[in-house]
Amino acid sequence: MGEPFGMLKVIVVQGKRLVVRDFKTSDPYVIVKLGDQRAKTKVINSCLNPVWNEEMTFPLREPVGNLKLEVFDKDRFKADDKMGHAQLSLQPLVTAGRLRQIIGVATDGSTLRKVTPNSDNCLALESSIDWVNGEVVQDVWLRLCEVESGDIELKLILTNNPVAPSRSQNVQK
């Protein structure tokens, strides 16, 4: 892997319609992976529609891979139960960021690119990549795979100034 060429902030915003893995509810948390890097949200007890608002920062390196996430139900006396997984190709986000750098033309709030659900991602809905406050931003809803239901909302922010990674910080609204 090469030197970092930028930073990716991943904000795990919330989950909706997550599956029941305990008696009537679940205690979900999310593990986010990018290459060999990983970060974990806090556990939200007894909730199928959790709100995390946690920020994780990962340095981006070539080749840019997929962002992967796994959702688990925290259990006390046995292994944590799987609640689904999803992935998202970061290539459209990185390409839009590079194009913005090369062309250098975008007003605040401009849409740089649209991404539609396909086999390279687990998008639940079409997503746009926008230029907001000097950053490349993508809001996504990912549909969890291999479970009955569940969606996770993420906000991705691409910056081109590499700094040391930080893990799992709460984001104040």
UniProtKB/TrEMBL annotation:
PROSITE patterns: C2. Residues 1-103 form the C2 domain. Keywords: Abscisic acid signaling pathway, Calcium, Cell membrane, GTPase activation, Lipid-binding, Membrane, Metal-binding, Nucleus. GO terms for biological process: abscisic acid-activated signaling pathway. CDD domains: C2_ArfGAP. It is found in: Cell membrane; Nucleus. GO terms for molecular function: GTPase activator activity; lipid binding; metal ion binding. Pfam families: C2. The keyword Membrane applies. Its main location: membrane. The keyword Nucleus applies. One of its GO terms (cellular component) is nucleus. Belongs to the plant CAR protein family. This is C2 domain-containing protein. It comes from Escallonia herrerae.
